Amino acid sequence: MERKTFLKTLGLTGAASVLPLENTLKAAASIASPPTCVLIPSETAGPFPLDLTTNPFYFRQDVREDRTGVQFNQKMRIIGLGNCLPMANVRVNIWHCDKVGNYSGYGNQAGLTYLRGYQITDANGEVEFVTVFPGWYNGRICHIHFQVFVSSQYAAISQLTYDIALKNAIYAEYPVLYTKGADPLNFNQDNVFSDGYQYQLASLTPNASTGGYDSFLEVSVQGNGTVGTGHVEKENAKHFLLGQNAPNPFKDETFVPLTLHSSADVTLELFGLDGKKAAIVLNRGLGEGEHRIPVNLSALGLPAGSYAYLVEVNNAEGVFRDSKLMTQAR
Asked: Where do the DSSP E strands lie in 121-212?
């Protein structure tokens, strides 16, 4: 099965100028994490959104391509507002500008695809992207756009940002990369965050391994810690039910539950987080009823890790697909 088919399914301002970066980070360490289980504010998708699902290239963890800048690992945890539990198997898209404020795909950047991508949340409701720390452009404070695609009926669109002193300390530490210098705006001057940013303020911490920085934001969306049901999901349910693999998280072997409402040819494939097909686990006919399909990474010659799994069911009524993510044990 082609990769494209799989993807179709799825108050400290100014402190940085007088404090060393390490001290600035320590000074802000006491800033409380955003409260959980408060619906993430909806924001405009901005003037530069692209449909990340139309090109299979966008299913990837590392979105940098040729962009230079400080390495930046952005992690997000998606939780359901109704019960504050993690939402597994939802798609999270991100897109942001490069270090000088340019977006791929627009103006003189038309045809380029850098700093855009999506992942599927794991069993902990988490995704992580490898990117570069974004710059800023006139009229907007530094930010990253994101969309949480819960189901074919509901998606949450918002933006995240960072503490002003911490962000400007990074710009000050790398003047050769961030030639525009400090971001001149504060939250009140930004037309998105001027009405509040408490639930959109992501953390910033140094990463000794990469020499860059890590960030984390917990995002509450409508739902109850489970994927919603839309038109596509309802159509699939007439023919089959794909369950979450168990155990999950797992170390080496796990089982994928599949219920068929009629006999069908079934293909089960694994994809790495970079969007590349890793293995075909099953490709044969199965009878009506419940099945547990074993997945053993060692037997497949695959390294330990998290993998998206896609099931294609081909029966007398047509071809139907669904996908989920199996999570490596930590």
From this structure: 126-132, 144-151, 154-162, 201-202, 205-206
